[in-house]
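Please decode residue identities from the backbone states below.
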């Protein structure tokens, strides 16, 4: 995975007022931590941050983070966003090493078309959209592809079926469902009315039949009463 250089300006003052001033000037408050280093308050240019994290790797992008005279290999581990505008208002950078195994969430991407499922009136549901994996920073995949073209109704793809690259593992249970092909409610109900109608017809006694005779037999005629 290629690295991107991002400059972080040290010496940021903390506090809500200072953070608002930074954001108004186009900079994002941030913290750098990891490997024994105490959390260092910095700020980064908002446009440069968006550019650095806009590639396929997203938050898993490796960064050459320049903090003053020092350069750290780092990753953006947490982005806080504005609840309404959804703009980034704070970011945490974690210092990493090339030879250490770290955890990261990797998107799961479905490929192919489940034509058989469609023909059977079914639906493909993606139960898991990202997988937490363990790998050294350079081996973290940008995404994990899952081919659904061979699915039929009733089939499922589990975590244990995922094609993880060499050097990448996961602690997620292999039995957890990633994809499920099931029949839609509309398709399942298509045959129900016909079955219910046939069953109802069998349960109705014909007029003048056994039910009518039983009712007549239980009622005395005027001649019997006299």
């Amino acid at each position: 995975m290629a690295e991107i250089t991002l400059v972080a300006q040290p010496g940021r003052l903390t506090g809500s007022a200072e953070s608002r001033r930074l954001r108004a000037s186009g900079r994002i408050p941030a913290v750098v931590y990891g490997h024994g280093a105490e959390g260092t308050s910095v700020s980064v240019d908002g446009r440069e941050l968006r550019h650095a994290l806009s590639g396929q790797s997203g938050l898993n992008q490796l960064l050459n983070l320049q903090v003053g005279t020092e350069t750290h290999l780092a990753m953006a581990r947490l982005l806080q966003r504005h609840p309404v505008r959804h703009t980034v208002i704070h970011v945490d950078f974690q210092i990493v090493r090339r030879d250490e195994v770290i955890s990261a969430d990797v998107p799961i991407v479905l490929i192919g078309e489940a034509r058989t499922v469609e023909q059977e009136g079914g639906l493909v549901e993606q139960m898991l959209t990202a997988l937490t994996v363990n790998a050294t920073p350079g081996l973290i995949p940008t995404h994990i592809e899952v081919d659904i073209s061979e699915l039929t109704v009733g089939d499922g793809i589990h975590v244990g079926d995922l094609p993880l690259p060499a050097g990448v593992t996961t602690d997620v249970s292999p039995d957890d469902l990633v994809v499920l092909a099931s029949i839609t409610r509309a398709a399942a109900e298509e045959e129900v009315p016909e079955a219910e109608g046939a069953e109802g017809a069998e349960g109705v006694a014909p007029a003048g039949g056994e039910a009518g005779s039983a009712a007549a037999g239980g009622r005395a005629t005027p001649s019997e009463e006299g």
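Observation: The chain has seven helices and twelve strands.
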